[in-house]
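User: Second chain of the day. Same drill as before.
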Amino acid sequence: MKDQPTIAIAGVTGAVGQEMIACLEVRGFPAGTLKPLASARSAGKTVRFRGEEVEVEELTADSFAGVDIALFSAGGGVSKEFAPAAAAAGAVVVDNSSAFRMDPEVPLVVPEINPDDARAHRGIIANPNCTTIVTLMGLNPLHRKWGCEKVVASSYQAVSGSGAAGIAELEAQVGAIAAGNPVEKGVYPHQIAFNVIPQVDAFLDNGYTREEMKMENEGRKILGAPGFKASVTCVRVPVYRSHSVAVTAQFGSKPDVAEARELIATAPGVDVCDDPAAGLYPTPLDTTERDDCLVGRIREDIVLENALSFWVVGDQVRKGAALNAVQIAELLVC
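Assistant: Same format as last time:
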């Protein structure tokens, strides 16, 4: 790939698309040209990149001539329609949707965990689910040492995981309650303001949601651990940004808490914030607009053998989506 590749962003006007631009700039990605792409209704608008206004073009199957890397964040339907066309035109697609994650021919990559998988691509590389990324950032250093076999987890997912509409609904409901007005619901099946909703995505026949099954299915692929099992409950909470996950992980051999802290602290992209006696543990505000995930409340589980419990928090718009995609792109040019 050339030293200064042409980068396209499909879905550039959305929250993740905008965050991709920010990550490219902050990290000094060697992009020669940025090609912003979006739906017809956004064509003609501009986005700012490196101090200049760049016009947004309509996303079509013919948009990728001369593009080296195409970052997609426009939803699964758009990815299925246009990502193959981008790959056929010679671009390497990094797709943020669920469209290709479980395709055995498509690498599913977290650069700190399985970077070599990205180099085995056939034109498309998938970005994992945001909650899976945040969880595995904390779990992977421990898995590499002791071999994680099972996880029981509960996620506390910010409304920005539902896009701008989720944020707007929370803001509107808080305002309505403060003013003594009726609360209106649209994005979520129940009031989200001052409430928690134990449903993220649609329910499956096994009683879990699609979001909850992603941890097991995607975790197996990313970790290279076909026997990995995960029982997850995903909960939407009235937080604007950053997901939190309470994890209990059972390993093939007995883990040590002090060593676990050291392993996480020295792993890339994740750090330890763990002194409960001093009130130190990660919260969503601690990771908002930060690259690294934070882990705290690390302790030996008192129910399961060979198990640790911990709390991991990460910005799902950044590390859970945009940053991870840009890091994959960096693997392609290094």
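The chain has two domains: 6-127+321-333, 132-316.

User: Great, on to the next one.
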